[in-house]
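To: structure subgroup
Subject: Chain for Friday's discussion

All,

I'm putting the inputs and outputs inline so they're searchable in the archive.
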Amino acid sequence: MGVARPPFHRRKVGRADLFCCRSQCRQIRQSFCLLVVSDKNLRGSTMKRIVSKGDAPFYYLKVLLEFEDKTMTVDVLTFRTVIMKAMMSMYGEVGAAIQIDILKYEDETMSAILRVAGSNMVKLWGALTMLSYYDEKPCAFRVHQVSPFLMAFAASSRQLLLHTE
């Protein structure tokens, strides 16, 4: 049997010891660290929590497309075309070439969950916000939720229904 490795590894930073969670430092580059400052003048050690957030590989956006004409509906292909037109009008051919995945689409509400690379999330959000017309019909995207984790969309506290008697 091998020796079990501790869940944290230690790095020396000046007079301080930095303890980082191994799994998150190496895999996601998002580390939740604990800084322990040891100084001879201090009687004990002072602990301070530091959260270091790196770039997420993907971001997920929950968006809603609204037209001024409330009776108008679009299918998933038209929804994707509207997104591509928004990216094209804002960033040209380069913006239209950005990979945007539609993970889930609801025809009734014209809402979708989009996945985009972390480096392109701000570009997509800006293009969706600036869109005001599609085929000469006034429309707007509403960004309801943004998260680097898809699990954040599983249970939204904004949509909870409390049953009280």
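Points worth raising on Friday:
The beta strands are 8-13, 16-21, 31-37, 46-52, 58-67, 100-106, 111-117, 133-134, 137-147.
Confidence is low (pLDDT under 50) at residues 21-40.

D.
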